[in-house]
Design brief:
The protein is built from ten helices and 14 strands. The protein is an alpha/beta fold and 327 residues long. The two termini are 34 Å apart. This is Gfo/Idh/MocA family oxidoreductase.
Amino acid sequence: MKIGTVGTGVIVEEFLNAVKEVVNVECTAVYSRKEETSRVLADKYNVKQIYTDYDALIKDENVNFVYIALPNSMHYEYALKALQNRKNVICEKPFTSTVEEAKVLIDLAKEKNLFLFEAITTLHLPNYTKIKEHIEALGEIKLVQCNFSQYSSRYDRFLAGVVANVFNPAFSGGALVDINIYNLHFVTGLFGKAKEVKYLANIAENGIDTSGIAILRYDDFICECVGAKDSYSPSFAIIQGTKGYIKLNGPTNQCLSVEIGVGDKVETYNEQKYSNRMIYEVIDFITMYHNNDLKKCHELLDHSLSIVETAVMGRKDAGIVFAADNE
């Protein structure tokens, strides 16, 4: 895999640090609208080629994957253009702003036999796989609770009137799609798409949610997903069944360790050897690409579409409107 990165934020550096640790993948180009920012990133990670023209990047024959880490509202536009130019795509979460956008990208990727991945760490973590393996031991599931709360470094400035992209409906921001989205992936990956979605949110004057509680209803149990960028809490997830429980320690995007209690027996597991959570998804993407495993890729795309549908249902329930909704 030869990857061209799009964006220069912290998440791009975390991704590039993961790439450095994995074989059969390299970053061959970086893109930013500003040459100085792309140059700094390229120099830090020994990347020879920089671009300030996106069209030039997606025509580079030494790039076969484009990694997109731009503001949420821009994911669709940049992913669409890459796919149209026969580039495989890794798109940061959230996948897209709307269901319609997600369907267009997925259909195009399938039509052109291209790989299209959502960079969502949760699904690829060994500790998450451990949870999947032990779900049946819990008996009938009754309640699921997830809390991913992280006071944003941009929140104080937001209160002072400086609106960052993550708190801007024009850029498809907000707590649900920025942080609670990991909880939605966590739950949906275990139990499938919820039958009903409600979202109770703390909504700022500009219409964006700074924190909220998503209630997902399944046939036989209820799930509560809390995501906050305006307040503090320990992050965790708990799955409660008639025969036991599973407790995830830490946020759902990292799955730091897993405690499983069934009957009188309680065991704690941590099967993750890498500190960089993104290494596992990079390994999985490489494996699918080299094995030409489009079937697995399409299964993941079905999951990503379910997440977009769930998030949109939640936003609509809370009355949160993105600029992308009207396009």
